[in-house]
Amino acid sequence: MQRRPSTSSRSSSGPVRRGLLFQSPVIEVRENHCTRHNVGLSPTTEPMPYHEVVFASRGLWCRHQGARSWPVDSRHVHFFAQGSVHRVSHPAGCGDRNTGLAVSADALEEITRGINPERTPRSPYAHTHRRVDARLAAAHGLLRRVAQQGADALAVEELSLRLVVRALGTSSCRDASSPRPPTASERIQVEQARALLHHDLSGPLSVSDVAAAVGLSAFHLSRVFSRVIGTPMMRYRGELRLADAIQRVLTGDAALADVAASSGFADRSHLTRSVRRALGGSPAALRAALGDARWEALARRWLDVERAESKQVHARARSAG
User: Fold this and answer.
1) Which residues contact 69 (CB under 8 A, 6 or more apart)?
2) pLDDT of 177 higher than 60
């Protein structure tokens, strides 16, 4: 199932509205908005229908379970197990907004296997919540933005999975700190995944689509792809799209809007920003430069950068040797 951005709210009775921003078989991204303003305790919620990782975006509320309670604000990410219940209060007398990442049970089991050996069917999490640092907060903000804009499904899904992994703290687990080398069969599956990414740059592929085609789970493919190729799938596909667009800009005369569509960019503006960031000029300016002597300056600039990077690589190799 591909992304399904939605401007309508989904669900729920009462003051909580849940807007679905993205949906795949592995993960859903929801924008939750609570309009409740009372400071007292709410009734007990219905059992959670899914596992959810919750990042607060705005406001403050408290999560109560039994005799314990925890504030839910932008300083922490909270984990809610499927089937769990809680009560809610708003000590500041205001509502709140948060982003909920609803993870499939199979994907969450795979993600948490290394960090919580004591996990149970009741809760796969090692903690109720964790502190959010600046990078994690920025990644949350980025995910909200790209999901709201209906960005490429592969990028949204992989970014969502990476955010869940980072939130759960898998960087400290044995598998992440000492990753085993990819097996021969995994390398073959990664090469099959690369072929699919090359085959259709503009198609709405998601990580789930590619993973199903090569016989791996979405989470495992995302992880092993980075180990084999050295870059995440979404960055790899972005580099493929940029290279394809540059070739089309410099060697053809198709309209830039058509180049953007063929190479998998959202629109001409997206193409222009990407090319300018990579090459220092807009696609239109680069095409114009091909008609006069300015192309020589462009070639020197690009080749000098390449030569400088080559020197750095050789210097690191000599120092390592």
Assistant:
1) 62, 63, 89
2) no
